[in-house]
Amino acid sequence: MTSVNAGVLIGLDWGTTSLRAHLLDSDGQVLDRRSSAEGILADQKGGFAETFQRVTGGWFDVLPSVPVVASGMITSRNGWVETPYVSVPAGIDELASSLVPFDVSPSCTIHFVCGMDQDPPGGTPDIMRGEETQIVGCLSPGCSSLAKGAAGLFVMPGTHSKWISVCEGNLDRFDTYMTGEVFAVLKEHSILGRLMETGGGPMTGGFERGVSARLDSEASLLRHIFSSRTLALFDRLEPGEIADYLSGLLIGEEVRSAMRDFDGKDDGDSSVTIVGSGALTDRYRVALALAGITAAPAPEDAAARGHFSIARQAGLIDG
Amino acid sequence: MTSVNAGVLIGLDWGTTSLRAHLLDSDGQVLDRRSSAEGILADQKGGFAETFQRVTGGWFDVLPSVPVVASGMITSRNGWVETPYVSVPAGIDELASSLVPFDVSPSCTIHFVCGMDQDPPGGTPDIMRGEETQIVGCLSPGCSSLAKGAAGLFVMPGTHSKWISVCEGNLDRFDTYMTGEVFAVLKEHSILGRLMETGGGPMTGGFERGVSARLDSEASLLRHIFSSRTLALFDRLEPGEIADYLSGLLIGEEVRSAMRDFDGKDDGDSSVTIVGSGALTDRYRVALALAGITAAPAPEDAAARGHFSIARQAGLIDG
């Protein structure tokens, strides 16, 4: 337990479908990690407090007064403690000064990170909870090219993908795309899923075909997605490729639109940092490459890095 | 039974979710009509033949040799008899000469209408089954402004909306928009439905708001639809208006895109014929008006009119 003894902070990245807990040392390094499928939509049998205590079990025996910072959908209306939003442009200073403390017990306080919102005149509002902390983590010391003061564009693939631009160290603008959820409901519940054969295998050539088709098309998405069915009916798309083709159409739409909106140009001379890991991240890397955009990987454990930076800025830990 | 005695043709408009049967006289007037929810996706306990005989029950007792023409998804792979496609541009001549006869019994033959397809070089294929017959019905004598030889643009609202242009009496081009199905799956299965209160009442102001918002926006649809959630979270959209707002966004997207694609201009100086009836048709009328486009109603019983025209052109009935 030597390593756990050196812990100075617990960070909770608590989202819709999962909870990730990190114990960090005074250099911001991850000493121990736990995870659970008990996202806020899961049945919390004993409530969020019991889940929190079970998932972080053991750490408090050794470190009874370790501070805790939490971010993600746990701060939403259906979460544990609803925090307000900090409006863009803003960054680590605003997030650190607006932490919402909540006493779980006389000896344990969780500091909840506020989500961020954006509400342009004449436009529609957008919101995020959790992604702001990951971006702060990407900008933390040690991630030199992305250090505070830097500018850049980030994508966070997911059920609701976020594109976030950073300017002078602040989150400047962000947009949510419902790409992952639209793909899931079309695949599971629409006629487009009827002809699909999905084996959970590696990404097929259907994905690149879909991305390329969408990058080249000005047709409405409501029309273009129907081609995943007609190409299959015409035997020009294999049953095992249809789902990947549809995924490619949607991710291609997202990449094209985001690059136009954020970059203001469509010449492919750009770089985007992909925050995340796993198969979905690979899809975005492929789609960005097809659009002529250089993709850079984000540092690992971005959320934990963000928790550490915010906690230090707020004076919860030394340094 | 006098009127039934005058029948010269049975027309079957047999789609995915319903079957409509019409008995027509020698002027193409509807003498009698039947309908059933036994579309091709319904469980056909005794098969399509038994459903056909039950729904048309009585007509054959009086008119044992009346000819039958059928169109719609009943001619698809999952239907009764799969017919090939006639490619655009084409019209009544090609549809009449390509009828697919099928003997239900020694005394009864159903003549199935071919669907139509479109497969532009470098584009993606599109298909329809049933709508071609309705368009022929809209062009039939008696619908003077739309008579054979006319040009025009038609929209057929539905699960899969079709936009169809007619030139010199032929169906010239058509595009399918998955508007209705995308709305249904987002409402039923995505996070966008969570905050919705839907009482099945009349269309709320949310619909016009959604149409107008979409007509004015260049944002990706994958992003714009998320505003049905955020506007509600920000108390700027009533729970009872959210579903209509989303419907407005999607129909607004369809109208804007189709007018650009078909009209080649975006000046609102256009007219579109809406084929169909009921509440969904009203939505399209409202959306077209907001886009500055004049909407004309199609003649009633367009499918039956189409069956009559095709049957006469094919020599199945005199005239």
From TrEMBL, chains A, B:
InterPro entries (alphabetical): ATPase_NBD (IPR043129), DGOK (IPR007729), DGOK_C (IPR042257), DGOK_N (IPR042258)
TM annotation in the entry: none
Domain of life: Bacteria
A GO biological-process term: D-galactonate catabolic process
Entry keyword annotation includes Transferase: yes
One Pfam family named in its UniProt record: DGOK
GO molecular function, one term: 2-dehydro-3-deoxygalactonokinase activity
Alphabetic keyword roster: Kinase, Transferase
Full protein name: 2-dehydro-3-deoxygalactonokinase
